Structures are given as C-alpha cells and as structure tokens.
C-alpha cells in the first residue's frame, strides 16, 4: 500500500511539472504542500526553519529523533545503508529536492525547453544547484543508478558547497570522489561511486515530493544525516523533535549521574519518577544551567505539558 501511494505521489508530481510545463513547483504550490508550517519561508516557498534549531538538531541522536517522529505517526522518514564521504561528520540542513528518471526523449525535451525559457543555464543536473541557498542540502532521487548515474563530480561539488556550505544526499552515485573529498567541509551520503559520466537520465522536477529509499521527502524538510543513516524531519516538527530529544538527553544525564552516585536504584530511574526524584531533577537542572542545550524558558514551557 505504501509503495503504491509513493508511486502515485511521484506520478502526480511529474505530471504536474510536465502538464504545467514547470521545472519546479511554484511558491504557492509548495505552501499548499506544507500547510502545517506557520513560520518564515524562503522566496521559493519552502519552510525556513531557524538556524538555532538546525544547530541543535545536529547534536540529536538518530534514535531519539526517529522515536519522536514515529510517535507522531511518521513511519517513513528514515533511510539507512549509505556510503558516506566523511562518516564522522554529521550534516543538518533545509532540503532542496530533485527527481531524476531514465531518459525519455519527448519528456526530456519538454523539461529542457521549459528550462531554457526560464533562463536556466547548463545541463539539467546543474539546475538544482542554482536553487541552493546557504544552509540547504541538495537531496536527489536518482533511482539508485550507479553506472552512468553520477549526478556530480568535483566541479559541481565545489559549486554546491560554495552556495550552501553543506553537501548532498543522492539515492544514486557520484564521480571524482577524490576531488569531492578535497572540498573542506563538503559531505555526501550516496549509494555508490563510479568513474562514468551521467548518461540516459533526465531531470523531472525540482522541489517536488520525492522518495529516498523508504522515506518520503518534501522540499523544506530538515535532514539529519549521520553515519548510521538519514532522517527527514517535517519542518513544522523540528522544534518539537529538538526539545523532546534535548529533554530526554537531560533526563538520561541526570539518571546516569544519580545511578553512579548510588542515590537511586535502576528500578526507580526506569519507572515513573516520584515527586522526590522530579524535585531532585529540577534542582540538578539549576545546578547545571550552563550545560543545558535549551533555555530555561524553553524548558519550563516544555515541562508544563510533559507527563514525565
């Protein structure tokens, strides 16, 4: 059922692009696609999650973020088994999506003609790069193609990093990987490497809904990429994910410390906390205020609705 739904969404997205002769969704269409986001948006209509939450999300474990999303009903936001250019570095950013398909001349001509009329320059696999702004991550579904499926080499890699300060996530491949490794700060999550050039592929849309493995991705999602895998967080849930995960981390730090001190038993820490432990936790928060990732105002507001 999920695969059928994803295929239907993909078909609708491509048809919308082709029928309207648009390479990308309009700002209004992206707003309609992301109605739960109430904050600032980029000029192209994507949700613009504040940098402060992007910075804090980078310190969240995949398991914590994934658990929170699943509890909210988002079961299809994770994809694993990646080749990572810099495995020890995490990457967080706002998503720009692109979709590629096996080349079909009539459709490819429509897209290229529309791109030319819009003033787009160069080969279509460079067009998504022109969209990037600082803090964006280029996420592309190239249907897992490795040989002749290399979306970028080191030239386009340098262009991507210059515009975004980030890297890429490709459900496909890259070339010139040694050159990409030389770009300080650039990172990439890819399905493979091949020395071949891109062939028999066509761009079918920019900033449309795409599928990355088992995950559904929208333009403006926020990606949390680590060596264990990737989670795509809906923009309107980023703040909630960050605050929940940070609170869980605080609980764990407090619990671990008290267990080492022998003040409580594992059964007491793992069970519903008593009023005594809750008071001790709040006192511990005050004593360690300089080490808390969230503000005290955020913590107090968060705990009003917290059931512990």
UniProtKB/TrEMBL annotation:
<protein>
    <submittedName>
        <fullName>RraA family protein</fullName>
    </submittedName>
</protein>
<dbReference type="InterPro" id="IPR005493">
    <property type="entry name" value="RraA/RraA-like"/>
</dbReference>
<dbReference type="Pfam" id="PF03737">
    <property type="entry name" value="RraA-like"/>
</dbReference>
<dbReference type="InterPro" id="IPR036704">
    <property type="entry name" value="RraA/RraA-like_sf"/>
</dbReference>
<feature type="signal peptide">
    <location>
        <begin position="1"/>
        <end position="20"/>
    </location>
</feature>
<keyword id="KW-0732">Signal</keyword>
